[in-house]
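Homework help thread (please don't just give me the answer)

Our assignment gives two proteins as sequence + structure token strings and asks us to describe the second one. The first is just a warm-up. Here they are:
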Amino acid sequence: MPTALWISHVIVTDPDSYAEYAKRATGAIADFGGQFLVRGGAYVQKEGRDFPRNVVARFPSLEAAEACYHSPAYQEALEFARDASERQLSIVEELE
């Protein structure tokens, strides 16, 4: 079964609330086997709108990534990000 990636691009507008989101989301993601590959750090914007925070997490499967997103723990964490950031999030299946 192929693994899957969460790819998120973020503009943080309220650092304190977003930090609470990140703290809570970390546990929810780990509960579904998610591992962070990228969490901020240096980047080079080549095309499109610049989102200065980039996050990539790998999950054991597309189903695990979807289940994590819809889990009560992640949805509770997400409440802290909604008004504290502008985000794009995609879930993509990796090649086998």
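The one we have to describe:
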Amino acid sequence: MIAERGTRDKLEKYFDLNRPLKITLQTDGAATYDFCCFGVDKDAQLSDDRYMIFYNQLASPAGEIIGKEIPAGMEFTVKLNDLPTTIQKLVFTCSIDGAGVMSEIVRHKILIGDEISAEFGGGDFEQEKAVTSLEIYRKNGWRFNVVARGFNGGLDALLAFYGGEQIDAPPPPPQKVSLEKKIQDGAPKLISLVKPLKVQLEKRNLLDVTARVALVMDISGSMTNSYEDGTVQEIVNKILPLAVQFDDDGELDFWYFGDRCERRPTVNMRNYEQAVPRNWQNLMSNLGYGTAELVVMREVVAEYETGTLPAYVVFITDGGFFDRSRIKDFLIEASYLPIFWQFVGVRGSGYGLLEELDNMGGRYVDNANFFALDDFRTVPNEELYSRLLNEFPAWLKLAKDNGVLDGSAKNSRPNPPPEKSFGDRFRGLFGL
């Protein structure tokens, strides 16, 4: 059924109300949008603020209403017959966080289950900052009303209208703030990356994963063109949202390597545009024009081998990795550690052992993946994130099931060093 503004009807005509009902709101546009469900009493007041469901409170006390962030919107799962009788109406709203007005949106879509939908564009609204999208209310059973009317003011004004109080509380845990909101507030130039990334995160059930994230960047002489034309900066730009999503502090650990390696200050939404220094030629010269992969890999392992979180390492290179024996031994040893290596070849060839990772035996769990790109800048973002995240979920499951994440897998190594760390062992083994 296609509903129009003002459509009212009984829900029981379309749905079995003894089963959970899904309500979906989505808005496409240039602004950042907040979605909310207000559970109000007979006086249309939010007399119990536990029944305000939004990005910072995703469930009511007994789970009668559960919110879930989805691309460009929020999905609410409602058990209408479980709601207390004090809740007489559910009001679903969309509001703008920051600049913008509702007349500038591309589309606002309302779905009730799979049976009823309504869609509106910017021309259906004026200069309002919010929309009252839908009401579900008690009247001889449960009914719905497609309101789709603008509301002056944003989320705070809606809260005041329904009688809620603004509470000064500690900021919510980072994982409860949407990726859109973080990027919009901290690095708005990167906002176009959020939707394609979230699509891939949702497909792979990675939205709730917490992990350390690292970027290891080749700065050997053969990478000169990629530094000159901005490719390396583009790589930083596109990897940073992964760190914002996965990492507790939203920061990206960062290394450059040539013949030697250098750990740089962590990259975040404030400094990411300076991650590639203006004098990168001097850094290239200082680190040497060749590649010594094991030097930087050893430093990465020393950083994460005893950590309590999984580490997701994106390793960028344009070639090399010909020292098959030592690199293979290294990856076998590292397979007992909470580190996943995502190798990416950029504008190169002859990647050596990396091209054989899928068939490389001897590892405790498969801890690495590789793919190559001709041009990092032009690959569609959704395809890029799909490839970056393709094998990470499988490794997470294997790592969890086999004691890699809790550290117990280290005891399964054939000849585990009794006192020395893995990093120290490789310093001695390879003379590094």
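TA reply:
I won't write it for you, but here's a hint about the kind of observation we're looking for: The chain has eleven helices and 17 strands.
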